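Message: I would love a firmer grasp of how sequence relates to backbone shape in proteins. Thank you; the sequence and its tokens follow:
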Amino acid sequence: MNRAARPLTSFVAVAAAVLLLAGCSSAQVKPVSDYAGEPRGVDAPASSAGGASWATWMQSGKQFGIVLYGSSTCPPTVQSVKVTASNQLEATLSPASGGVCTHDLVPHTTVFATPSGVTTSSDVTVKLPDTTLTIPALRG
């Protein structure tokens, strides 16, 4: 290979790697579990007492849960999350069921495996359509 072609080849290889990594970071991550109630084994923050959504690490950071409040018969759930940075996630809500829903306010938890590249050592924000949640950094 001649000297003039080497920089172009290197540039093409680097550009391909960047595009490949960028494509991976925008992948939608699907839930591993979904259930009525708050996350098992986790204390709800005081701020959730009025029905405020919240998020937490689970299983020492291997998973995280997003807790939304709504009807027990038509619970709000998270369809997927997308990693936008090592400390930022963007959540997509599942479509509403369209059925008749009770007018109660109960928690519902959607659990995700923590995607590779997401830090647990600093706060992580989860952007929902109408609010932004913070998962506090794991300590120790």
In short: The helical segments are 5-25. The chain has a mean pLDDT of 85.
